[in-house]
C-alpha cells in the first residue's frame, strides 16, 4: 500500500513547479512572522527607544498583515497579476530584512514592519488562492503542506537570530556598565512575545535609551535576507516558465493551461477578487446558506488562529506567574515547543488529509483543543502537564485552518470568496484575540488566560457544528436556484462561436461536496 495513490502523484508532478513556488513563498511568510519576538530587545537598543515605544512595531506588522490579506484578492484576476504580486511581496521581505539594520528610529522601523506585514498578507492570500484553484477537490493535502512551510520558516528565523542576540543590556549607560543580567533580558524578551499587552513592572530593569549601542543583531537580518532571496527568484522562474516575463496583453489562466485539472468545473468562474465576488451581480439570487457558510467558516478560523496567537504570546507570562512560578529559562521553551508541535502536526496532516475527509479531521481537532484546555485548567499547578498540554494543543490546532479552507471551498463549489474571507478572518482573529486576552490577563490575572482560551474553543466548536448543519441544508437546497445561477453565469460569460454548445450544455453543475465528504 502506497502513502499516496498515483493520481495525486500525477497531479503533483504536472504542477510541481507552481506548487513548490507557493510553498517556498509561505516559507518566506513564516521567516518574517517569527523574527520579531526574539530580536525585539536588540531592536529597542538599535532605535534607542523605550519598551512601550518598540512594541508599536508588533501592531504595525499585524495591522498591515490584515490589510495585505484583504488586498491580496485584488491581484487574482490573472495569473500574471498574481505572480507579479507574489514576486514583489517576497522581494519586499528580503529588502525589509536588509534595511532593518539601517532603521535607527522606531518610526522608521514601524514603517518597515508595515511594509513587511502588507507583503505577508498578500503572500498569504495569493498562495492559498492559487493552490485551491490549482487542485480544487484535492487541495486539502497541498494546503496542509503549504502551512507546514510557514512553521518551518518560523522555526528557522529564531535559530538564525539567536547567536547574535545580546546577552546583557546592549545600550551602555553613562557609567559604561551593564546592570541587567542575562536572565532578566530573557524574561523581558519572552514576555514581549505577547505583543506588549501585559508590560508591567519594567522599571526594575535598567534599559537605557541613551548611550553606546553594542548590538550585533544586524548580521542576523542580513543572513535572513540572503536566505529569503531564492524565493523571489523561484517566483520569477515560474513567471518565465508560464511565459509571463515578457509584456503580454493576455495571460493564461492556470487551470485552463492544464487539461488534467482535479475538477473540470468552474475553472474561470471561481475566486474573483473581493470586490467582484461581493458585487450585486454576483450575489443576486444566491441562497442565504451561501453567505452563512462564508461567515461561519471565517468565524471558526478567526477563533482558532486567535487561539494560536494568544497562546504563543502569553503562555510564557502564564508559566512564570503564580501558581506555577516556573523559571524564566524553562518557561521560555514553551513557545518554541508550541510552534514545533504545530509544524509537526501540519507535516503529519499532509498524510491524514489524504486518508480522512476534512469534516472528520476538523471534528477531532476541535474536540482535542477543548479537551486539552480543560485538562490544563484542571491540572493548573503542574508544570509537567503544561509542557505536555502545549505539545498536544499544537498538534490538534495545527490542521484546522487548511482543513477548514478546503472544506469551505468544496462546500461552495469553488464559486465564492471563501479563501479571501477565511484568510482575512484568520489574520483579524490573530490580532484581535491577542489584544483581548492580553487586556483580560492584565486586569484579572494570569489564570484567566486558560479560561479565555477554553471558552473561545467551545464557541469555535459550536460554530463548526452550525457550519455542518448549514452545509447539509445548502447541499440539499432545491436545484432550481442552482440552475438559475448557472444560467445567469453563462449569460454573463463572453459568448464563443461554438455551434455544439447547446447540445453539450449540461442541465446543471453537479454538487462536488456530495461525493467527496459523504
UniProtKB/TrEMBL annotation:
Transmembrane segment boundaries: 20-41, 53-75, 82-100, 106-129, 141-161, 219-240, 290-316, 361-380, 386-407, 447-470
Membrane protein topology class: Multi-pass membrane protein
GO CC terms of this entry: membrane
Compositionally biased tracts (Polar residues): 250-269
Keywords, ordered alphabetically: Membrane, Transmembrane, Transmembrane helix
Superkingdom in the source lineage: Eukaryota
Name listed for the protein in its UniProt record: Major facilitator superfamily domain-containing protein 4-A
Subcellular location: Membrane
Family the entry assigns: Belongs to the major facilitator superfamily.
Span list, region Disordered: 250-271, 486-518
Amino acid at each position: 500500500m502506497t502513502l499516496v495513490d498515483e493520481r495525486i502523484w500525477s497531479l503533483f508532478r504536472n504542477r510541481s513547479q507552481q506548487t513548490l513556488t507557493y510553498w517556498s513563498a509561505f516559507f518566506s511568510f513564516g521567516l518574517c512572522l517569527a523574527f520579531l519576538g526574539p530580536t525585539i530587545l536588540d531592536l529597542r537598543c538599535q532605535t534607542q527607544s523605550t519598551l512601550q515605544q518598540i512594541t508599536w512595531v508588533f501592531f504595525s506588522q499585524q495591522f498591515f498583515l490584515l490589510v495585505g490579506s484583504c488586498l491580496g484578492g485584488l491581484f487574482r484576476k490573472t495569473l500574471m497579476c498574481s505572480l507579479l504580486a507574489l514576486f514583489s511581496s517576497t522581494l519586499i521581505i528580503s529588502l525589509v530584512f536588509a534595511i532593518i539594520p539601517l532603521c535607527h528610529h522606531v518610526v522608521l522601523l514601524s514603517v518597515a514592519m508595515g511594509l513587511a506585514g502588507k507583503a505577508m498578507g498578500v503572500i498569504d492570500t495569493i498562495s492559498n488562492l492559487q493552490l485551491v484553484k490549482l487542485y480544487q477537490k484535492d487541495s486539502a493535502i497541498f494546503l496542509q503542506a503549504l502551512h507546514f512551510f510557514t512553521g518551518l520558516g518560523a522555526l528557522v528565523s529564531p535559530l538564525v537570530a539567536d547567536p547574535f542576540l545580546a546577552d546583557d543590556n546592549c545600550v551602555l549607560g553613562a557609567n559604561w556598565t551593564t546592570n541587567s543580567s542575562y536572565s532578566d533580558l530573557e524574561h523581558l524578551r519572552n514576555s514581549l512575545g505577547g505583543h506588549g499587552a501585559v508590560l508591567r513592572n519594567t522599571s526594575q530593569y535598567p534599559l537605557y535609551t541613551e548611550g553606546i549601542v553594542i548590538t550585533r543583531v544586524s548580521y542576523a537580518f542580513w543572513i535572513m535576507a540572503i536566505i529569503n532571496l531564492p524565493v523571489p527568484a523561484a517566483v520569477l522562474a515560474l513567471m518565465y516558465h508560464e511565459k509571463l516575463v515578457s509584456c503580454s496583453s493576455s495571460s493564461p489562466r492556470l487551470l485552463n493551461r492544464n487539461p488534467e485539472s482535479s475538477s473540470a468545473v468552474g475553472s474561470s468562474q471561481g475566486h474573483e477578487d473581493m470586490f467582484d465576488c461581493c458585487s450585486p451581480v454576483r450575489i443576486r439570487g444566491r441562497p442565504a446558506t451561501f453567505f452563512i457558510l462564508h461567515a461561519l467558516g471565517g468565524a471558526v478560523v478567526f477563533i482558532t488562529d486567535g487561539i494560536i496567537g494568544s497562546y504563543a504570546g502569553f503562555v510564557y507570562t502564564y508559566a512564570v506567574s503564580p501558581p506555577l512560578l516556573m523559571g524564566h529559562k524553562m518557561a521560555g521553551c514553551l513557545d518554541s515547543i508550541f510552534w514545533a508541535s504545530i509544524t509537526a502536526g501540519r507535516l503529519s496532516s499532509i498524510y491524514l488529509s489524504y486518508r480522512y475527509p476534512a469534516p472528520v479531521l476538523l471534528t477531532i481537532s476541535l474536540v482535542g483543543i477543548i479537551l486539552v484546555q480543560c485538562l490544563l485548567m484542571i491540572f493548573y499547578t503542574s508544570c509537567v502537564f503544561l509542557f505536555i498540554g502545549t505539545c498536544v494543543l499544537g498538534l490538534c490546532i495545527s490542521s484546522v485552518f487548511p482543513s477548514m479552507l478546503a472544506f469551505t471551498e468544496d462546500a461552495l463549489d469553488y464559486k465564492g470568496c471563501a479563501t479571501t474571507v477565511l484568510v482575512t478572518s484568520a489574520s483579524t482573529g490573530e490580532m484581535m484575540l491577542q489584544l483581548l486576552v492580553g487586556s483580560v490577563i492584565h486586569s484579572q490575572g494570569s489564570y484567566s488566560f486558560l479560561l479565555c482560551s477554553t471558552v473561545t474553543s467551545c464557541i469555535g466548536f459550536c460554530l463548526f457544528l452550525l457550519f455542518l448543519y448549514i452545509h447539509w441544508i445548502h447541499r440539499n437546497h432545491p436545484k432550481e436556484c442552482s440552475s438559475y445561477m448557472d444560467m445567469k453565469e453563462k449569460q454573463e460569460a463572453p459568448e464563443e462561436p461554438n455551434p455544439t454548445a447547446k447540445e453539450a450544455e449540461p442541465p446543471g453543475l453537479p454538487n462536488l461536496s456530495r461525493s467527496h465528504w459523504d
